[in-house]
């Protein structure tokens, strides 16, 4: 769940979009070193090119969520994160699937992602941090598991993007995200014990 302090997603990072691009470029430099026989560097190149272009936009939406604590409606704030997640995965999934067809490329990509602190854990952390802030203000129920709720929302949106790509059908994005947020059972009720203090 925790991300490395050096992550470009961290609040201390300057030039956030550029920092995320720098992360991806570092990963590209590592992964495009001499490839093992039978691997397809063109598939990896395409994926990383898409990631370099799309990840900073997705990361910015997730980082901006933290600034929304205590502002607007919780469901509306989460809706923006859910929509961004679906859009991000819809744009990169086809390229990612071609990499997943090769076990050598999966292992290589995993190693590079781990060494450059890339992956969905950063998005989970941003949503969970937002929810923790709202829980602290009493805008969601005191017993909400913020980490679990973040994983459920991001995971469901990823799955929705994948199923739409695979089957070409499914609920509209807006309806799906609204349904998932409702399913989180955040309570949107104050912590009554905190109110009594």
Helical amount: 55-70%
Query: What is Rg?
Result: 18 Å
Overall pLDDT:
79
- Tally of alpha and pi helices: 8
Bulk shape: globular
Q: What is the makeup of the main sheet?
A: none
- What quaternary form is this? single chain
Indicate the low-confidence ranges by residue numbers.
1-8, 10-14, 28-34, 190-197
How far the N terminus sits from the C terminus, by CA atoms, comes to 31 Å
* N-to-C SSE string, H for helix and E for strand: HHHHHHHH
SS elements, strand count: 0
Quickly give the structural class: mainly alpha
Features:
197 residues, mainly alpha, 0% strand, disordered N terminus, disordered C terminus
Describe it.
It is a single chain. The chain has 197 residues and is an all-alpha fold. 69% of the residues lie in helices and 0% in strands. The chain has helices at 16-31, 41-66, 74-100, 103-115, 121-136, 146-167, 173-183, 192-196. It is globular.
Note the topology.
Blueprint: H1 16-31, H2 41-66, H3 74-100, H4 103-115, H5 121-136, H6 146-167, H7 173-183, H8 192-196
Helix pairs in contact: 1-2, 1-4, 2-3, 2-5, 3-6, 3-7, 5-6, 6-7
What's the short version?
This protein is 69% helix and 0% strand.
């Amino acid at each position: 769940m925790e991300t490395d302090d050096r992550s470009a997603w961290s609040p201390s990072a300057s030039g956030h979009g550029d920092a995320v691009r720098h992360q991806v470029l570092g990963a590209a430099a590592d992964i495009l070193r001499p490839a093992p026989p039978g691997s397809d560097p063109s598939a990896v190149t395409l994926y990383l090119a898409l990631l370099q272009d799309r990840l900073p936009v997705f990361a910015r939406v997730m980082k901006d969520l933290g600034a929304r604590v205590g502002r607007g409606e919780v469901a509306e704030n989460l809706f923006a994160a859910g929509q961004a997640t679906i859009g991000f995965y819809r744009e990169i999934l086809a390229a990612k699937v071609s990499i997943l067809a090769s076990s050598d490329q999966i292992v290589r990509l995993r190693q590079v992602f781990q060494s450059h602190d890339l992956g969905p854990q950063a998005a989970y952390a941003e949503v969970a941090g937002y929810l923790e802030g709202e829980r602290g203000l009493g805008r969601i129920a005191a017993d909400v598991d913020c980490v679990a709720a973040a994983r459920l929302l991001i995971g469901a949106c990823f799955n929705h993007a994948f199923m739409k790509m695979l089957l070409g059908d499914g609920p509209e994005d807006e309806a799906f995200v609204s349904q998932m947020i409702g399913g989180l059972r955040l309570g949107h009720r104050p912590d009554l014990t905190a109110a009594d203090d």
